[in-house]
Amino acid sequence: MKKSLGGRPLLFPTPVLVIGTYDADGKPNVAAVSWGGICSSDPPCVAISLRRVTHTYANIVAQKAFTVNLPSHDQVKVADYFGLISGKSVDKLAKAKMTPVKSTLVAAPYVKEFPLVLECRLRHTVEIGLHVQFIGEILDVKADEAVLNPNGLPDIKKVNPLIFDPATHSYFNVGMFVADAFSVGESLR
Amino acid sequence: MKKSLGGRPLLFPTPVLVIGTYDADGKPNVAAVSWGGICSSDPPCVAISLRRVTHTYANIVAQKAFTVNLPSHDQVKVADYFGLISGKSVDKLAKAKMTPVKSTLVAAPYVKEFPLVLECRLRHTVEIGLHVQFIGEILDVKADEAVLNPNGLPDIKKVNPLIFDPATHSYFNVGMFVADAFSVGESLR
Predict the structure, then answer these.
(1) Using the beta-carbon criterion (under 8 Å), do B78 and A185 form an inter-chain contact?
(2) Fewer CB atoms near the end CB (10 Å): N or C, chain B?
(3) Min Cα–Cα distance to chain B from A80, Å
(4) Chain A to chain B, count of Cβ pairs less than 8 Å apart?
């Protein structure tokens, strides 16, 4: 018998994504969000949700572009700070001594110090409720060489991304390899 | 200098979600997906993406409802099997000896043996490309008593959910507590 907990935004895991944008004057901003995820393979797309009151919301509406940056485990203090306050009156990047890099593909900056970034062009805007969902086409994935595996793809343990736990409002990291996908279940076929 | 990897659907972490649906005849089906996540706090909503060819896609279109079930680490074989084949010709639940339970809130079944489930009513359908995104309002979250923390909310380490790594097509589990959110970054303010 399962216990009913009511309707609430709860899922494990949710990611820790730092969204990079420019405002109308070209000033870079970053904000941390956990409501998001991949939503399409072809074209490759990622969805993120923002409240209308945020600086990032206004920036995406204006520029029709954003980056999704994945902080590493040891950058948790900076990632959390990027979710604590609004960039309307503070230069969060300067305060955290992080470096915005202008994307050559979209009108948005990514963060040099984060190991993995997605450069996205806005494709869809979905009005849901408190949050508006922005769906961006991933035009490029950029990664630090140090986090690549021998096949040239990002190694999840080297990126060492953060996980947000919406039940206790805390961060976790990625644990151990469990099994190969599209393989371990073959025995049940 | 970051290395360009091209546009691809890559993000860490992505979840392992088992979607429960009924077909037009009321036959239960389950399918594993990793393209999804929370997309709104109020109303609480979750987004999942499906290809049009899938049985689950047709079921959600017909019933306008679905459940999102979170398998635990030790249920990886079943979760992977639910993503390997279509439910059009096979009763995956029976084959895996798992039990569908009819939701009293929506026209969809959840899986008794999975520790955490969300019961969702379809609110939005977004045509993206290969995938169609379904946004469901989370009418209730149901959890096994054994996975609750002292505050009555699901404990991420007790649920022990799976993580999908889209770079290597493998599963990981959740690791260690890193820090409290909306707190550890205060020192940078």
Answers:
(1) yes
(2) N
(3) 5
(4) 384
DSSP string for residues in A109-176:
EEETTSSEEEEEEEEEEEE-SSEEEEEEEEEEEEEEGGGB-TTSSB-HHHH-BEEEETTTTEEEEEEE
Q: Give the span between the Cα atoms of A83 and A94, in whole angstroms.
A: 15
Please indicate if any CB of chain B lies within 8 Å of the CB of A68.
Answer: yes
Query: What does R_g of chain B's alpha carbons equal in angstroms?
Result: 17
For the whole model, what pTM was predicted? 0.98
Q: Which of B40, B80, B170 sits opposite A35 (nearest CB)?
A: B40
Task: Give yes or no for a contact between B22 and B107, defined as CB atoms under 8 angstroms apart.
Answer: yes
CB B68 within 8 A of CB B134: no
Nearest to A103 by CA among A139, A132, A129: A139
Give the pLDDT of chain B (189 residues) as one tens digit per residue.
Answer: 899 999 999 999 999 999 999 999 999 999 999 999 999 999 999 999 999 999 999 999 999 999 999 999 999 999 999 999 998 889 999 999 999 999 999 999 999 999 999 999 999 999 999 999 999 999 999 999 999 999 999 999 999 999 999 999 999 999 999 999 999 999 998
Helix (H) or strand (E) segment spanning residue B3: strand B2-4
Query: Could you tell me which residues come within 8 angstroms of residue B27 by beta carbon, excluding any fewer than 6 positions away?
Result: B91
What does A49-101 look like in DSSP terms, one character per residue? EEETTSHHHHHHHHHSEEEEEE-BGGGHHHHHHHHHS-TTSS-HHHHTT--EE
Q: A142, A81, A86: which is closest to A112 by C-alpha? A: A142
The residue among B38, B9, B12 whose CA lies nearest residue B118 is: B38
Distance CA A38, CA A170 (A): 22
Residues whose CB is less than 8 angstroms from the CB of residue B58 and which lie 6 or more positions away in sequence, other chains included: B23
